[in-house]
Each structure stands twice: as C-alpha cells, then as structure tokens.
Amino acid sequence: MRFCVVTFGCQMNVHDSDWLARALEVRGWERVSEDQARVFIVNTCSVREKPEQKVYSLLGRLGDLCGRDPDAFVAVGGCVAQQVGRGFLERFSFVRLVFGTDGLVRAPDALVRLVGDPRARESLLESSETFVEREDVWSLPGPAPAQAFVNIMQGCDNFCAYCIVPYVRGPQRSRRPEAVLAECRVLVGRGVREITLLGQNVNSFGLDRGGTGVGFAELLDRVAAIPGLERLRFTTSHPKDIDPEVIAAFARLPNLCPHLHLPLQSGSDRVLRRMGRRYDRAAYLGIVEALGRARPDMVLTTDLIVGFPGETEEDFSQTLDLVQAVGFQSSFSFKYSDRPGVAAERMGPKVEPLVASDRLARLQNLQNSITRKCLKNCVGLQTSVLFEGLSRRQARGEVFWRGRDPAGRVVNVPRPESGPELTGRMMQVRLVEAKKHSLLGERAGSTW
Ligand code: SF4
Questions:
Q1: Of the residues 235, 238, 277, which should be mutated to test ligand 1's pocket, given the most ligand atoms within 8 Å of the CB?
Q2: What is the Cα–Cα distance from 180 to 152, expressed in whole angstroms?
Q3: N or C: which end of the chain has fewer CB within 10 A?
Q4: Which domain holds residue 340?
Q5: For 269-296, how does the pLDDT look when each residue is reduced to its tens digit (9 = 90+)?
Q6: Do 8 and 73 sit in the same domain of this protein?
Q7: Tell me: the pLDDT tens digits for 363-380?
Q8: Are 21 and 46 members of one domain?
C-alpha cells in the first residue's frame, strides 16, 4: 500500500512519524509523495495555534483527493487527535483512524486492518500509565541514517501556564534505561554516529513512577560510553531541573556535543512566575555561567514567548536584556496564543496582537544581530561536520553539501563537480564565511 506522512510540530512528532513510516515499510508498505499516496497519515501538533489550523486546511485538501479514489483514506494522530478524539471521525467521513500519542504504537496494525476492511473505522485514544515501548524497527534491514533520535520518556508533569503538552501527552513516564541503551546500541551498530535523546523534560528522567534509580546524568554517561558513538545530544531541558551532574557531564564526556537548547520563555521574573516556570533570571544566568565553566565552547539556543498575558513593556525589555546578556546562538520565538484549557487562557490582560507583533519583530531583530555576530566569530576556525545531505541552498548554479558542526550550527560546503557522496560522513572543514543563519566552509585538506 502506498502511503505518505505529513508531520506538524516538534522533533518528537518528527521522530514519531519516522517510526510509524518505518513500521509500515516493515509491513511491506511503500512511502511515496502525497500525489501518489492512497493512505494519508497526518501527525498533528496542538502546541501552537497555527499548526492546528493547518491540520484543518490540510484535511480539506485530502478530502478532495479521497473523493476521487474510494479506497483512499486519512489517519489522524498526535496531539490534536488526542484532544479532538472521535470528533475527527464524526466530522470527516474520509478519516478512518484516529490515534493519540500513546495509541501510535498500535497504529501500524490498525492501518493494515483498515486496508483489509474498507468499511471499518478505528480510534486508539487510550492513555497508558507507563512508557509504551514500540516495536523495534531499527534492527531490521533497510537504510540507516547517520543521525537518530531516541525517546527516553513520554509526557510532562510541569503544567507551565501556557502549555498544552501535559493535557495531551499525559504525565511524565520514563523509559527503562536498559531499553534506551539497547536501542542506542542497535542504532550505533547499524552505523548511526550521532544520537539525540528526546523527551519533554529530559532533566527529570527517572523522577517518576517509571524511574529505576537511574537519573539523567547517569543515563548520559551510559549512552556516551557506547563504543562507536561519536556525537550525543539531548533535548528538551527545563532550566529548573538541570542537575549540576548534567552540567558536569559536558566537561566529562568528550562525545557530548557542546550545545544546549535551554528554553528561557521570558526574561522577566514576574512573567516567569505567572508562567509557572519555577526559575528566575538569576537562576537561569547561574546555569549559563556554570555551563560556560564546564565547556567554554558551549553554544546555547532557546525558546521565547512574547505577549504572555499581562506582559508589560518593562517585562519585555527584561527579555531583550537577558537575550543580549546570554547571547543565544539562535532562538525560536513566538507570540503567545491561548490554547484551550491551559491556565493562561484565563489570565489577563491579553496583550494587543499589534503590540505582540511589534515585540516579536524587535526580539527577532535583536536575535538576528546576535546570530550574525556568533557566526562571524566562527570564521577562520576548523571544525568537524557531519553531513546530512545536499543543501537546498544554491548560488550561481553551485550545489552544497549541508551538515552540522558539534554545536549544531549549519555548515554548507560547495560540492565539487566530481566527488564522493558525503551524506553520513564526518569531515574536517575550515569555516570561511558567515551567512545569515549558517556558515560556509571548505574542506580542510586538498582532496575529497
Ligand atoms: S516543561 Fe512546561 S513547556 Fe515544557 S512540555 Fe512541560 S508543561 Fe510544556
């Protein structure tokens, strides 16, 4: 059966979609582009308002495609599916499967059943009290990428005032460390060189009823020790939970990459309190300093929200001030939007949309200038780059290989007329020019 997966949202969703696609390929299905597919899987996200709206407009388009082919149908999964539930089945006749975040593991078999019974429709929306293990799709034959993501936990217990994740992904449930290690070993054995450990709040790994006494710092030690693993990363971290042992791991583990994504959200203590983040400016800056001591080449990136209910111009200027002080390499910044049922939905006063847009533009201008400066400082350095594939970036007909340095910066290197395939290869590169969001490099050494 020919299928395609459309993914909205964060890295967790991208990883979930990759697993689902692979599980279907293992069952003999073929992943194709949208115009050739007969089964359309939409993996949704409800963290921001826009992705949710995009799901509905996509479903409108897919409905037209399904109208032309009676055997074609749509499956909707992820956070919006968990929230809207069977409403998708009631509203759209061409949607035949709805699966929630815990229901994902059973989605491949459900899809096979639905193809076999054209009148059937299913929903997989129940939540589980423990981490739901998925079938191993990585040790089976098939192409293995150089980089891989490994889930170490599900859900979140923090209930930050603006966030819908704990409502749709459920409480935090840590995966057993042995299962994490086994998956990492399989991946490295298949040629994976870089692993990113994934969770909503990896720093509280093990601190829930699924915990076995192994905390996140110990998990890092154990994964980093897998022979052949060249790069280890993790995301996402909550500043309130980052353990000094995790900070020390950056000094201790040579293959732990010197990059940390540490969501700040706001630079105002008053707003941070209202957000329920449970850290303040001073604590955040203390972590930044400790990280710099552990690893002087540490690169920080972050998430920021502007226009949180009640945010004043003074609060916002505190955010600008802290962004400048930390000097984030890059950031994801968003205007606050009400998500249904979260605490901030009931908070006021709401910030005028035009005011929020103006603040977002000012914040992004500041970030762009900091990013430019950070990238310029890299010019002249030599670094290792793990190549991910060809770059979409083209200039004067040139084609580039695109990869990342240990700090996660994008590095493009011109592809010579004839040269080897670089995807999945690691090479030493001299950085020669800073672009707006990336670096241009050339191979250190004379030949490819
Ligand atoms: S830590 Fe806060 S922002 Fe992150 S997923 Fe949990 S509730 Fe959402």
A1: 238
A2: 6
A3: C
A4: 291-377
A5: 999 999 999 999 999 999 999 999 999 9
A6: yes
A7: 999 999 999 999 999 999
A8: yes
